[in-house]
C-alpha cells in the first residue's frame, strides 16, 4: 500500500469514527431527553414514594370543547384531577378553562405553544413557562401550578430553569393511551391501568381531542377499577404532599 492509499484509509477511518461517535451522542441525548427517571438538573417526579393507596389522574393538553364531558365524569365520580393545559389553548377556550378551575381541579402548566423544549434558548423556555403561569393566574386560580413539559421532553435548559425556580418536572408512570396496541380500546386501557397503578402512581391520559375518544371512555372504568382495589384519588400536588 503506498503512502497515498494509507492516508486515504486513515481519513476514511477517522470520518467513519466521527460519524458513529456523533450518532451515539445523538442517540444518547435523545434517550436522555425522553427519560422518565433521570435528568441532568433538578427533580423529576414520575410517581410519589408512599405506602398510601392513592394515585393522581392527570390529563394533558387543552382545554378544548371536550372539557365539559371530562368535568362531568369526574364530578359524578367525586374525583379531583390535575390538568396540564397549554397557554395557547387556555386563551382560545376561556370558558373551558374557567370550568376546570371552578370544578376545583388542579391546573398544571404544559407550556404555551406545546413546542418540544429541547435545544431551545433559555429565553424561549422562560417565556413559554412564565406566560402560561400568568394566564393560569389571570383566571383567578390560586392553587399550586405543577409543570409538565410537552411530550415529556427535556434536556438541559428546561431542567436548569425549573431547578432555579424550585420546580420539578412532573412526568408519569402509567400511560395507557401511549401504548399503541391498547390505545384504541377503552376496556384494555382500563385493565392496563388497574393492573399497573401502584401507591403513588401518576397516571397520564389525553381526553381533549376527538381522536382520544377511547381515553375519555376509559376514565370511569379506571376510577371504578382502582377504587375497587382500595385506591383513592389526589391531585399531583396533594400526592406530593404540597
Ligand atoms: Zn401534551
From TrEMBL:
<feature type="domain" description="NodB homology">
    <location>
        <begin position="53"/>
        <end position="234"/>
    </location>
</feature>
<keyword id="KW-0812">Transmembrane</keyword>
<dbReference type="InterPro" id="IPR050248">
    <property type="entry name" value="Polysacc_deacetylase_ArnD"/>
</dbReference>
<dbReference type="InterPro" id="IPR011330">
    <property type="entry name" value="Glyco_hydro/deAcase_b/a-brl"/>
</dbReference>
<dbReference type="GO" id="GO:0005975">
    <property type="term" value="P:carbohydrate metabolic process"/>
</dbReference>
<dbReference type="Pfam" id="PF01522">
    <property type="entry name" value="Polysacc_deac_1"/>
</dbReference>
<protein>
    <submittedName>
        <fullName>Peptidoglycan/xylan/chitin deacetylase (PgdA/CDA1 family)</fullName>
    </submittedName>
</protein>
<dbReference type="GO" id="GO:0016810">
    <property type="term" value="F:hydrolase activity, acting on carbon-nitrogen (but not peptide) bonds"/>
</dbReference>
<dbReference type="InterPro" id="IPR002509">
    <property type="entry name" value="NODB_dom"/>
</dbReference>
<feature type="transmembrane region" description="Helical">
    <location>
        <begin position="12"/>
        <end position="30"/>
    </location>
</feature>
<keyword id="KW-0472">Membrane</keyword>
<keyword id="KW-1133">Transmembrane helix</keyword>
